């Protein structure tokens, strides 16, 4: 697999997002998750991404039980589960969450530690200062921010250099192209693209709307609600036809498009099963291929917002 830089580390250009191990998108079990992790490494993946909120520690526990210390590992903190959901970025809470994550991950150090969501009341310079202390103490190799604006990236990076910024980015979510990807490139920060396969919309076959109410958050996500859901399936159909005509897998072409948007971008698709990893084969996409993809899926084609109003709390808007 092609290699890309994530801070001082060279990692596989495609990472692995372990959110689904927490049961966020459907039932799974530890044995299946462990097979999936083994298959990912066999395929050249060397960067694994998780968070303390994924299954309330379940994803981290599974990765800890896996026991591989030869992979580049990232986890996150900052979201406080509850109704309504809250966010904390104070030093005491960050330290508490890190110690809990390290215990579940069976590690004394994690290569990358993210603030999952920013708490507006705390200056990001203070947060960067906390993370700098954790780097100096050897607890983390570097830090990142998630779902933030370019202005926040500049402020945090000036206080202590950022390793990575993680925001949603895919063929149907292109907001980061309006300044965030460029800011990361300018500052030498890796941009980690989560949900690069549109939460299943760019899977091998068209997604079937069979979400578990109250568990699978797509059940309340505007893009997955009717009439938007059917409209999005129809909008993506020409892309599927293009992939079939070219001999590409749909996930592979979608990942290839993300990778082509910048050599500092590392997408982190996720899956519950090892079998889906075979669909991530990335074709060589030339300028003509990328132009054809943009012709069938132009910027802004998606029907519905990527999050509902209740899910937008603590996500920084800048356009």
General description of the model:
By secondary structure, this protein is of the alpha/beta class. The protein has a single domain, classed as TIM Barrel (Alpha-Beta Barrel). Helices cover 34% and strands 14% of the residues. An eight-stranded parallel β-sheet has the order 3-4-5-8-9-10-11-12. Strand 1 (3-6) and strand 2 (9-12) form a beta hairpin. Helix 2 (58-66) crosses helix 3, helix 4 packs across helix 5 (150-159) and helix 5 (150-159) packs parallel to helix 6. The longest helix is centred in the C-terminal third of the chain and has 19 residues, at 228-246. The radius of gyration is 19 Å and the shape is globular. The two termini are 35 Å apart. The model has no long low-confidence stretch (mean pLDDT 94).
Strand order of the largest sheet: 3-4-5-8-9-10-11-12
What is the CATH topology classification name? TIM Barrel
Structural class: alpha/beta
- Could you name the ranges where pLDDT drops below 50 across 5 or more consecutive residues? none
What's the CATH architecture name?
Answer: Alpha-Beta Barrel
- In CATH terms, the superfamily is NADP-dependent oxidoreductase domain
> CATH top level?
Alpha Beta
Oligomer: single chain
User: Helix share of residues?
Assistant: 25-40%
Principal-axes shape call:
globular
Quote the beta fraction: 5-15%
Rg value: 19 Å
Protein name: Aldo/keto reductase
Keywords: Oxidoreductase
Domain NADP-dependent oxidoreductase: 13-279
GO cellular component, one term: cytoplasm
């Amino acid at each position: 697999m092609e290699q890309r830089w994530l801070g001082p580390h060279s990692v596989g250009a495609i990472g692995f997002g372990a959110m689904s191990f927490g049961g966020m998108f459907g039932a799974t079990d530890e044995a299946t998750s462990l097979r999936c992790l083994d298959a990912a490494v066999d395929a050249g993946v060397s960067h694994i991404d998780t968070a303390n909120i994924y299954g309330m520690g379940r994803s981290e526990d599974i990765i800890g039980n896996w026991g591989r210390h030869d992979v580049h590992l990232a986890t996150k903190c900052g979201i406080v589960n509850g109704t309504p959901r809250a966010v904390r970025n104070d030093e005491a809470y960050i330290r508490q969450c890190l110690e809990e994550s390290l215990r579940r991950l069976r590690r004394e150090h994690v290569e990358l530690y993210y603030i999952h969501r920013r708490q507006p009341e705390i200056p990001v310079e203070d947060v960067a200062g906390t993370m700098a202390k954790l780097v100096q103490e050897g607890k983390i190799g570097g830090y990142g921010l998630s779902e933030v604006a370019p202005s926040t990236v500049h402020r945090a990076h000036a206080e202590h250099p950022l390793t990575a910024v993680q925001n949603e980015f895919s063929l149907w979510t292109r907001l980061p192209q309006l300044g965030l990807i460029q800011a990361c490139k300018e500052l030498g920060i890796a941009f980690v693209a989560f949900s690069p396969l549109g939460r299943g919309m760019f899977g091998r076959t068209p997604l079937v709307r069979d979400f578990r109410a109250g568990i699978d958050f797509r059940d309340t996500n505007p893009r997955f609600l009717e009439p938007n859901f059917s409209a999005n399936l129809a909008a993506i159909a020409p892309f599927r036809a293009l992939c079939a005509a070219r001999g590409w897998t749909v996930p592979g072409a979608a990942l290839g498009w993300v990778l082509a948007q910048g050599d500092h971008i590392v997408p982190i698709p996720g899956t519950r099963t090892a079998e889906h990893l075979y669909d991530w084969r990335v074709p060589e996409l030339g300028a003509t291929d990328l132009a054809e993809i943009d012709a069938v899926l132009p910027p802004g084609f998606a029907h519905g917002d990527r999050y509902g109003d209740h899910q937008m709390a603590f996500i920084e808007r800048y356009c």
